[in-house]
Amino acid sequence: xxxxxxxxxxTFYQLGRTxxxxxxxxxxxxxxxxxxxxxxxxxxLLGERLVIAERGARRVELTPRGLALYELIRPEFxxxxxxLTRLMESQRxxxxxxxxxxxxxxxxxxVVRKFHESRPDVELVVYERDTALAALVRQGxxxxxxxxxxxxxxxxxxxxxxxxxxxxxxxxxxxxxPAEADIPEWVRGRPLIxxxxxxxxxxxxxxxxxxxxxxxxxxxxxxxSVSIKRYVGEGLGFSILPSWSAGPEDETIIRVDLPSLxxxxxxxxxxxxxxxxxTVRALFNHCQFELSGR
Length: 294
Known about the structure:
The protein is of the alpha/beta class and 294 residues long. It has helices at 6-18, 21-28, 32-46, 64-90, 101-106, 108-118, 133-138, 183-186, 200-209, 225-233, 278-291, and strands spanning 51-52, 61-62, 94-99, 123-128, 144-147, 156-164, 166-171, 193-195, 220-222, 239-242, 253-257, 264-271.
């Protein structure tokens, strides 16, 4: 006999337990056609009818073979589900979060401090990523992400939590700051450090710096604001960074805010099935409080 997928058996178990395709679909978070397809595939593998579904009937009946199979697997499934429930309830809650390294380094510690005052039992696992965040949530590798891009993924819920401005940053040894209108001329011939291709800040920086026809040729491109700031502090070049990346405490860097540039949005994304979770909602509120107005 061909190997039978556990998902097919689980679907059959829920159908036998509930007596309804609709109820089984709701229990399994599947569509009605998906449940029906699972049953047809299981019947094909076993070579026998398991379910009788009258057209228009709200409930289904099991054939004698289906009833025998259901009574065979029911005790094992009940025990397995009980053990899994106890195992999961005994584990410490964990939220897996993806976000750019700059946000993780400069903004998220304040969120963590406030969140753990109210949810000390929840572990936050942070993955510093800039790309493919929505896909990682869809694949089940992440629960939540914070990103500057709205992905428009139907499986992922995204909400705006704030915006931040951009600034020119350069080594203090280069002298006094230029006026914002003079920056496209001021940067000519100076070494440039940018975010890697595909990031929103890079696109905005190249558009701004190239307003007067300058050719944008970065000395180096890296993935995070944290790394760029380090290179600028070492005197290797200038860059465009989030305004919160550099402050008065940075003795080797001068920051020039760029109010003419459109503020960059920050979105909070989560798997759709977690949108009503109280823990996720608490984290969202702390993120919104900490990150809004940046």
